[in-house]
Specification:
Strand content: 5-15%
Oligomer: single chain
Helix content: 40-55%
Distance between the termini: 71 Å
Number of strands: 14
Largest sheet: 8 strands, mixed
């Protein structure tokens, strides 16, 4: 008798488990329907192969998520409480909640361009009325719970018939094949830079497609190849929102000097005497911020004039900055002077499309490479017969490097807040800046007097030997950089209103290239020469960023948790975020996809 009861219990549990598998599969199908809303946010695929990839990815991803929800929340209950009525009601409730969360995530992603996280949830909760602007968001949850209860009962009553048809193994093989195939296709697309596939990387929540770029390149696949020069036709990117109307009176040469790891506070008469004097003869923007904490993200904001969260969008892998397009249209020669390798430049997408790259390489260190780049720039600009636009990237300060035999400056007492090892880096950093200052003192006097010169940092500096720590540091030391503009026929002055890299492209387009189109049609910034009342600056990308406001700094970490600091970044504030401004920030990061 006891054995019979045990067998009956095992049969009941087995039947419940079989029912749970099919219920999970059904919810995977429902999740696919709701998840189709993400495609509307990122734009439909533009080719048969991308449609095929998206179909495989959708089937594999959502059925996998549904099975994970089942394993975590429903399967243990089916073992502990093997009662079908209780389990069906409980499972319908769990599945409904999971679909509600997915539906809410589609709304947030469409409006802010990010998936659910503590930051996104708090932001959306304070903006709930604007997000849920339709009665369908009230009716839909009711419909979902009704469908779940109906499906749970329907599948339970027919589970024996379903099992007799032996569809289970076929479904598992099909879903598994979709899941594995989608990742294999993505490995190839990532290695070959097929943007019509890789642009869907962040579309689905908790999606981490497999990559193997290094492996594929070693087996003959060109990882730097871009397959298209235009944005896919089905992308909903509007950049620019309107065609630019530009007509310059007299072409003017422009030189942009972007120095890696240039702290604003270090431009003084002791460490950088030449640049300090040059600053007094130029426009000095004393409250200037970079757009990112590494070369790629910072230069994206400078060249495109857009917030850093746009840099994660695959569309910009093929769409060049409107500034580049207009410079070429007006007959400018474009030159890029850098130590970055071809592979590194390829990873920046279309940021420098149209530029003639001059890459210097030296085994003696980045300081020697900087000397070579400056020499190449001098020769290049001397040979130009047309108006020119050049970007010179100097990187010695980032590596704390100086050339062999360089006689620097005396060391000084490092800030007391630094640790012993950091104090050593601090003074070595100063030596590197003095080297850069010497190089600028030799370069700038040889630049034609009618050339407009922009000098800024790609990012600041924090005293650590860890590149990853430096990239993730969003403190003022790492994001506040100098901006010095030597502009012929404009009187030198100090400018104290807040500016950022977003304003450089609009300034060049409007004041140099004669563009009359409003900057908001193509940029997140405004002309640097016009006082602005911007109350925030976005620094970083869509995964890790800081929002600098007047009295506080909001920092979002890798896993969606956020912290709020005071304006000096000295202490954490125990308060909720200032929703109105942050909502404006996040919507700015989606504006070019919603017009």
């Amino acid at each position: 008798m006891i054995e019979r009861r045990k067998q009956m219990t095992r049969d009941k549990v087995s039947r419940l488990v079989n029912w749970g598998h099919w219920f999970a599969f059904f919810n995977g199908l429902l999740a696919m329907i709701i998840g189709s809303r993400y495609i509307g946010s990122v734009g439909q695929p533009d080719s048969i192969i991308s449609w095929g990839y998206l179909a495989l990815s959708t089937i594999g991803h959502y059925t996998f998520l549904a099975f994970i929800v089942y394993v975590i929340f429903i399967f243990p209950v089916s073992i502990i409480l093997p009662y079908s009525k209780i389990l069906r009601g409980y499972a319908a409730f769990v599945a409904s909640m999971a679909l509600y969360i997915l539906l809410y995530d589609t709304i947030i992603y469409d409006d802010y361009g990010i998936h659910l996280s503590p930051f996104a949830f708090d932001l959306a909760w304070q903006d709930l009325n604007a997000l849920l602007h339709s009665t369908s968001y009230i009716v839909t949850p009711i419909v979902i719970i009704v469908i779940e209860l109906t499906a749970a009962n329907f599948i339970w009553k027919r589970i024996d018939k379903i099992q007799k048809k032996q569809w289970g193994n076929k479904v598992v093989l099909f879903v598994g094949a979709c899941f594995i195939s989608s990742h294999l296709i993505h490995i190839w697309a990532d290695a070959a830079n097929i943007t019509d596939i890789t642009r869907f990387d962040d579309a689905y929540p908790v999606s981490y497609p497999a990559t193997a770029r290094t492996f594929m390149e070693s087996h003959g696949v060109d990882g730097n190849k871009v397959t298209s020069d235009i944005v896919p036709q089905t992308s909903n990117l509007h950049y620019p929102i309107e065609p630019l109307q530009c007509q310059a009176d007299t072409p003017t040469n422009v030189l942009v000097i972007a120095i890696d790891s240039l702290q604003a506070a270090m431009v003084d008469d002791v460490t950088m005497p030449f640049l300090s004097q040059y600053t007094r003869e130029s426009l000095n923007f004393t409250q200037h911020y970079t757009g990112g904490t590494q070369f790629k993200s910072s230069m994206f904001t400078l060249m495109y004039g857009l917030q850093g969260n746009y840099s994660d969008k695959q569309d910009f892998g093929v769409m060049s900055p409107v500034m580049n397009q207009e410079l070429i249209r007006q007959g400018y020669q474009l030159g890029l002077f850098t130590a970055r390798s071809q592979a590194e430049l390829a990873s920046t997408g279309a940021m420098f499309k149209g530029f003639q790259p001059h890459i210097s390489v030296s085994e003696d260190g980045s300081a020697t490479t900087d000397i070579q780049n400056i020499t190449a720039l001098k020769q290049w600009q001397h040979n130009q017969t047309q108006p020119w636009f050049a970007v010179l990237n100097l990187s010695a300060p980032q590596d704390y490097d100086t050339p062999v035999g360089f006689l620097g400056i005396e060391t000084i007492k490092a800030p007391t807040s630094l640790k012993s090892a950091q104090k050593v880096l601090f003074n070595q950093y100063r030596q590197s800046l003095k080297f850069i200052d010497n190089q600028l003192s030799q370069l700038l006097p040889q630049i034609d007097d009618n050339t407009i010169v922009f000098i800024t940092g790609t990012h600041g500096q924090v005293f650590t030997s860890s590149i990853e720590d430096a990239r993730r540091d969003l403190s003022p030391d790492n994001v506040k950089v100098p901006l010095i503009i030597h502009w012929p026929n404009i009187n030198p002055s100090e400018i104290h209103y807040r500016t950022s890299h977003y304003g450089i492209a609009p300034t060049i387009l409007s004041k140099v290239l004669g563009c009359t189109t409003a900057s908001e049609k193509y940029s997140s910034g405004r002309s640097l020469l016009e006082p602005n009342q911007e109350s925030w600056v976005y620094i970083g990308n869509s995964r890790e960023f800081a929002i600098y406001q007047k009295n506080e700094i909001t920092v979002l970490g890798r896993y969606g948790k956020y912290r709020i600091y005071d304006a000096k970044f000295e202490r954490r504030l125990n308060k909720k975020m200032s929703a109105p401004e942050l909502i404006q920030v996040m919507r700015e990061g989606r504006r070019l996809y919603q017009n």
